[in-house]
């Protein structure tokens, strides 16, 4: 990235960091706070980057940020689609192309989800890749930041044999495992029909057909199936035991995203278990590094710190 481009990139990041209200990003605002916008360490936390790397980016000392890093910053800064594209271009990168599965989470959706901090929320793209989650999601399912971005996919967790599958806690669906699995495959088949030119989606499907007999069987079955929407599930948590929750999948019109929420009836023992996890967990929402990177080698322990 040329010097002028690096300067423009750093200036954009600083300006948009100053613009974003901490409360809209899920942070508690205290009386002693001076700056109206995000602190640098808060942006680093939201984007899954080291504070030093964010500083070097803003000071134009870091070169050639990856598409993964730019995507993470765009989500953390709650940029519009036009602003996101501007940030990509200032980094010397082509913005995400139309016709591929989008991982962009609109600012309004992030603000809405950040205000529902008591509820475990995960936002998924059309191929069931996790692209945003809050602290309650981490408290219930474990911190997704420790899983490489390419593995943060529900279909991989169900049918694969990698880190996503190993990290997924035991979850029992009231509808039974087959119905749940078939609905996820149906969603992927629908995504393929709408994004036929998406190479990463094609690789995901070919990979799962090769490693999972169940996935290959469901994929070959022509019987129509309803998409995954709502369910009642029991989550086996390592600290509080079984939690029975209602799982609701909310479709985000125009963004091709799914917002997944887990709730329990007020006053129930399951709600009490969620309260325990809430007290133990943080209050900050997470905008992780891009869920569809070209290179996941920069992600270590949930923090991205590429070489300058």
Strands, count:
8
Report the oligomer. Answer: single chain
Largest sheet strand order? 2-1-6-5-4-3
Number of domains: 2
Strand content: 5-15%
Biggest pleated-sheet summary: 6 strands, antiparallel
What is the level-2 CATH architecture name of the largest domain?
2-Layer Sandwich
CATH class of the largest domain: Alpha Beta
In N-to-C order, the SSE pattern is HHHHHHEEHHHEHHHEEEHEE
Number of helices: 13
> Which fold name fills CATH's third level, the topology of the largest domain?
Beta-Lactamase
Write down the overall geometry.
Answer: globular
Q: Which stretches are poorly predicted, pLDDT < 50 over at least 5 residues?
A: 289-308
How far apart the termini lie comes to 11 Å
Structural category is alpha+beta
User: What's the overall average pLDDT, rounded?
Assistant: 84
- Radius of gyration, CA atoms, in whole angstroms: 19 Å
Helix content: 40-55%
Can you describe this structure?
The protein has 308 residues and is of the alpha+beta class. The protein has helices at residues 3-19, 40-47, 51-58, 67-76, 81-90, 107-115, 135-141, 154-159, 163-167, 177-194, 199-211, 213-220, 269-280; strands spanning 121-124, 130-133, 171-173, 230-237, 241-252, 257-263, 299-300, 303-304. It has two domains: 3-95, lambda repressor-like DNA-binding domains (434 Repressor (Amino-terminal Domain), Orthogonal Bundle), CATH 1.10.260.40; 107-280, Beta-Lactamase (2-Layer Sandwich). The strands form two sheets. A six-stranded antiparallel sheet has the order 2-1-6-5-4-3, sandwiched between helices. A two-stranded antiparallel ribbon has the order 7-8. Helix 4 runs antiparallel to helix 5, helix 7 packs across helix 13 (269-280) and helix 11 packs across helix 12 (213-220). It is globular. The N and C termini lie close together (11 Å). This is Helix-turn-helix transcriptional regulator. InterPro entries: Cro/C1-type_HTH, Lambda_DNA-bd_dom_sf, MLTR_LBD.
């Amino acid at each position: 990235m040329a010097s002028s481009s690096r300067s423009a990139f750093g200036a954009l990041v600083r300006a948009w960091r100053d613009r974003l209200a901490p409360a809209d990003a899920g942070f508690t605002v205290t009386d002693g706070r001076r700056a109206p916008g995000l602190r640098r360490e808060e942006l680093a936390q939201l984007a899954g980057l080291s504070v030093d790397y964010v500083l070097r980016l803003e000071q134009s000392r870091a070169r050639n940020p990856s598409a993964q890093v730019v995507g993470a910053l765009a989500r953390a800064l709650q940029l519009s689609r036009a602003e996101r594209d501007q940030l990509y271009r200032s980094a010397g990168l082509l913005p995400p192309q139309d016709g591929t599965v989008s991982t962009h989470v609109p600012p309004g959706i992030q603000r809405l989800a950040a205000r529902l901090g008591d509820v475990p929320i995960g936002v998924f793209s059309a191929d069931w890749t996790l692209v945003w989650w809050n602290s309650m999601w981490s408290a219930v399912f474990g911190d997704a930041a420790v899983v490489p971005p390419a593995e943060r996919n529900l279909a991989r967790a169900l049918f694969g044999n990698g880190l996503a599958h190993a990290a997924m806690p035991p979850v029992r669906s009231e509808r039974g495992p087959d119905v749940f699995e078939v609905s996820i495959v149906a969603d992927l088949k629908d995504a393929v029909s709408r994004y036929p030119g998406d190479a990463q989606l094609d690789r995901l499907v070919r990979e799962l057909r090769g490693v999972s007999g169940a996935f290959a069987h469901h994929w070959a079955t022509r019987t129509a199936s309803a998409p995954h929407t709502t369910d009642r599930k029991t989550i086996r948590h390592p600290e509080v035991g079984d939690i029975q929750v209602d799982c609701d999948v909310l479709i985000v019109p125009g963004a091709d995203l799914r917002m997944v929420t887990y709730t329990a009836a007020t006053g129930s023992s399951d709600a009490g278990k969620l309260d325990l996890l809430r007290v133990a967990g943080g209050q900050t929402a997470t905008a992780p590094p891009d869920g569809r990177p070209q290179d996941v080698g920069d992600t270590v322990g949930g923090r991205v710190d590429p070489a300058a």
